[in-house]
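Why do we care about 3D structure at all? Because function follows from shape, and shape follows, mostly, from sequence. That is the central idea of this module. The next example makes it concrete: a single protein chain, its amino acid sequence, and then its structure expressed as tokens.
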Amino acid sequence: MKITGVKTHFVEWVRGPYHWRDGIMPNGPVGRAGLLRIQTDEGVEGLSPYGGGANIEEIKWQLIGADPLNRERIWQDFWRNLRSSKLGLAIGAVDCALWDLLGKASDMPVYKLLGGMRDRIPAYASTVTLDSMEEYMELADVCLKKGYKAIKLHAWGRLEQDAELCRRLRKKVGDDIVLMYDASSMFNLYEDAVWFGRQLEKYNFYWYEEPLDHFNMTVLARLAQELDIPLAVAEATHGGPWDAHAQIQAGAADIILTGPLDAYKGGLTGVLKTAHICEAYGMMCAVHGGAIPHLHAACAIYNTKYFERLVPETYYSPPGIVDASTEIDSEGYAQPWDKPGLGIEVDWEWVKKHTVREEG
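And the structure:
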């Protein structure tokens, strides 16, 4: 089997606005997504979500003529060129599409090929930033009614206001619901990060995510030593498994975050390498992100406990490209479909109608 073509489709649709913490530009009312396609001479095609940003001609130069089943060789070729190109923005999607292709060629779901640790996994409801505490309380009601047993807050990045939100949410949901907090690297001062961590400990939060500058391993290590609550870090750093190892060696991490579509993380192959490094240290490797490759990754590796799902579940996904990642059952679990590959179903008429740019 040989790769004969690489194409991308970038689509837009009307969705409605949303936003993150203070200091991050809000997302407008237009939803945007990309789809990467790797085509072969045998008619088997690999698909993956794709954020764009890399040079399509360089991607094609790396891939066309290669055997798509030699994923490790392709991964190494991409990784060794990250220093002098933008392939780091594509390696995740390329690797995920190659795993999708393998799944279709072998008639197996990707998570089974990756390792098959479990067939389903508890999901946590991951919020965006809302405008008021009342909206967070209303959303918590919706999440609990759907079956979620865990919720992660993305709040405003305001010390006292965020702490009060955490207090109110814990009081509302009770002690049996797992709560996490994501600071999105908001806090600049060590003292602020310590104070807020103490509030999270008081309200029995499960982890404290990205509290400080994600590149500053020195201060993160100091914070990890000071607090009892686990620090979840490395979501936004580059370097994949090697960065994860550096974070662990520095004492900056209690939990490593990685994702198959995060830039410069290395796709599903990179997630596996990172998870195995964490396993050697007896450490959890949390999968960051809620797309379908993330669900397969979370079901494949031993040392992870949850699948992250932004809520409302279908709000952020293109209506014409569907998969199992938006489906949460009444017990709060997510489960890949029992279909070959990643299980991405594409309405090509919808994609054609909503495509604003094609490459390849």
